[in-house]
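Hey team,

Filing this mostly as a record. A colleague (T.K.) asked me to run one chain through the structure pipeline before their review meeting, and I want the input and output archived in the tracker in case anyone asks later how it was produced. No errors, nothing strange. Just documentation.

Input sequence:
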Amino acid sequence: MAEDPTGTWEWLLETADRFASVENDEPVLCHGDFHPLNALVDSDGHIGIVDWTDACVCDRHHDVGRSIAIFWFASLIAESAVERVGLRMLRDWLGRTHRAAYESRWGSALNDECLAWWQVVHLFRGWLQLGELAEGTVPDQESTTTERLPSDLRGRLLDRCLVLRTLVAP
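Output structure:
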């Protein structure tokens, strides 16, 4: 693993018992990569979810935390300046709306600390994946998405992890 100057990996390990255990909450089937591009809507408004390759049984905060992390991350890799600004302006609203819909459907509130912790997990995973790209250990690493990644993206992911870590009580 690449050198993590922020200690995020160690922090995740130290806090995992509090947040990653399905013993703390009712385990649910999580999609693992839930975001709008993996939801299909037909003409009658029925929604279908695709791309279940990362599915797992986990804490219910896992998928919502990932979605909120993706909403934050999306503006960093947008194709144009207009798209970047629009996504940056919408990301908090998207996160709140997604969370509210999940809580409404589930019938109970999600825990803020758990959501922050799961966002750190997913953003740190992105940091690791970018490290693999930089080291050349990933086959077929060239794509239109990777070509537009900002050069400081890994640092920005760790910075966001640090911000989210402050939302989790020691």
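Quick notes for T.K.: Residues 8-165 form a domain with the Aminoglycoside 3'-phosphotransferase; Chain: A, domain 2 fold (CATH 3.90.1200.10). The longest helix spans residues 81-106.
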